[in-house]
Structure formats: C-alpha cells, structure tokens
Amino acid sequence: MTAPRIDTDTLRALPKAVLHDHLDGGLRPETVVELADAVGHPLPTTDPGELAAWYYEAANSGDLVRYIATFEHTLAVMQTREGLLRTAEEYVLDLAADGVVYAEVRYAPELMLRGGLTLAEVVETVQEGLAAGMAKAAAEGTPVRVGTLLCGMRMFDRTRATADLAVAFRDAGVVGFDIAGAEDGFPPADHLDAFEHLRRENVPFTIHAGEAHGLPSIHQALQVCGAQRIGHGVRITDDIPDLAAGKLGRLAGWVRDRRIALEMCPTSNLQTGAATSIAEHPITALKDLGFRVTLNTDNRLVSGTTMTREMSLLVEEAGWTAADLRTVTVNALKSAFIPYDERRALIEDVVLPGYAALPRTSPRT
C-alpha cells in the first residue's frame, strides 16, 4: 500500500534541524531592499517580490561560480552593525516560523569588514542578533537553538585568522568552523594549518566538499584535514558505481561506516548542477544505503526555499515518508556540533514526540 502523503501545514509544524545554512544567503527580500537603500547600494530591482525572483532565476544557472556571485547584494547590506543585527535576528525568527528547533548558521566574517568593523566585532554583533532572535522566538512559543559556524574563504588567506576566531568565541555561541567558496581549484589541504590548529583546540569543523569537485576533495577533507562532517558531499556517489546494488568503494565505505554526516541541500544542488532532479538526487539512495544524510537549505533566499519546502519536494517527488524525514532530522542532531546532552534532549524531548504526534494519515497537498 502506498504511504499517505503529508500536507504542507503538517510538514511546517514538524520539528526540524538544519546544519548547512548560510546567513548571507537567507535574508528577507524586503530587508535587502530597505538596508540597500539605507547604505546607497544599487539593486537589480527595489521590489521585494521581483528581487526574490531575480535571485531564484540567477541561482538556477547550473554554475556554482555564478550562484556564489548572487551574494554581492546581500553582503553589501551586511557591513554595518545595524545590518548585521537585523539580519541575524530575522534569520532566527524565520527558522522558528518554519518549525526549525536546531540550526547551525554559517558565514564568513572576513566578507563583512567593508564598513569598518573588525573580525571580532562582526562575530560579536552577529551573536547579539542571533541571541535577540532566539529570545523573541522563545517568547513566542517557538524556541530554536542556533549555533554558529565561522567560515574561512578557501580562495583567500584569512582562514587561519578565522579559525582563531572560532577558538576565541567557542564559549560565546560559535560551535564550529567551515571553509566555503569556489571548491574547484581550491583544495581543502591548502588550509591545513587552520584545521590542525582547530583539532589541537578541540573545535569541530565541517568542509564544503564533493559539490563542484569530486572524490579527491572529499578524501582531502576527511583524511588529510580531519573534517567531522562534509558540506554537500553529493559526489560521494562517484565511489558507488552501482547505487542500486549498493557496492561501496573504500572512501564511500569509510563515510558510511564512520557515520560521517553529509550535509545535503537538494534544491541548491540542482541549481549549481551537482544534481539533476529531486527524484534522482543522491540523498534518497544514500539514505537507503545507510549513510548519515542530513537535509538542509543552504541559502534560503538565493534558492527560494525553506526546510518545509525541501521536505515537501522529497515527499512529492522522491516518495519520502514521515519516517524518512524523522531519520534525517535525527541524523542532523546526532552530528550537531553541540554537547551530547543537548543533542540527546532535542531528539528525545522535541523531535521524537513531534513525529509521534503525527496523524496516521495525512491528505495529499
């Protein structure tokens, strides 16, 4: 018997966890318009609806470099204390409204220095905005725990300085580290000094790998740099010649057997050309093979998406059930960069009861 579909309102109410979401890719269109006007930054359009459509169209180029270029306008309005406070607070409130109970937000402080803020001031300001958002969300009855990942840009030379920031702020809301930016041509091992420093200081990190480049990128991230998670990781399927048969190569076997989380972002992966369709996205086959896959949004404005939308797409186009959605949510929390007792409490006290309360049947949207 075919499993019943889950309607959108039910999906929105489900407790969610997101590990891979960029602060500068998740602004509200109206916020970009208002802040751009305040700082005198020209936009493709000053109509919020048209701006959202512009982002979505530009992101659907199938080119990771062009996808990243759309961040010019969001970053332009995140160079001041006022801009950072507002965008960070709204970021949290938007997640809470979407049913997210745990999130890790990532951004690169080095990209937010044009207004005169120092690296430390950027981090302090974002943390202040996130804290304000969490307080408001809790007061509204939709609490969400948000941890921060600081990103070094793999094309530049400030990665070690950003790693130092992650160490300095690990008791002030920063839970880990990442490197981001154009993957092809900028291997993770170029930043080995930063990763070795983080390991010495017991700071966990993930690495964008296996999106625009293949198995060598994933191998370096794991076996040379020591990443605990992989951002995207879509190309791990290059080490599984026959997905249906499930015969794994040595790297794929390592990823699965060591429970290394793959931070997969279906809509974003389609837009950057890393996947061809939701129905054929590797997240489903990898889930069925026992990989610790997680579901993420990557950039909510740029990709025109939410966690509810990502879930809905997988339900409607890949046949996912509530059990599948629960699995990837629990996977995310098991691999979150927060203490074990906090992860366990979120799973046992929030996620599992939330799914247990689902009706046995749900109408199709």
Write structural notes for this entry.
- GO terms for molecular function: adenosine deaminase activity; zinc ion binding.
- Its cofactor is Zn(2+).
- InterPro entries: A_deaminase (IPR028893), A_deaminase_dom (IPR001365), Ado/ade_deaminase (IPR006330), Metal_Hydrolase (IPR032466).
- It catalyses: 2'-deoxyadenosine + H2O + H(+) = 2'-deoxyinosine + NH4(+); adenosine + H2O + H(+) = inosine + NH4(+).
- It is a single chain.
- By secondary structure, the chain is an alpha/beta fold.
- It has a single domain, classed as Alpha-Beta Barrel (TIM Barrel), CATH 3.20.20.140.
- The chain has 16 helices and 8 strands.
- It has a 4-stranded parallel sheet, with helices on both faces.
- Strand 6, helix 11 and strand 7 form a beta-alpha-beta unit.
- Helix 2 crosses helix 3 and helix 15 runs antiparallel to helix 16.
- It is globular and about 55 Å long.
- The C terminus is likely disordered.
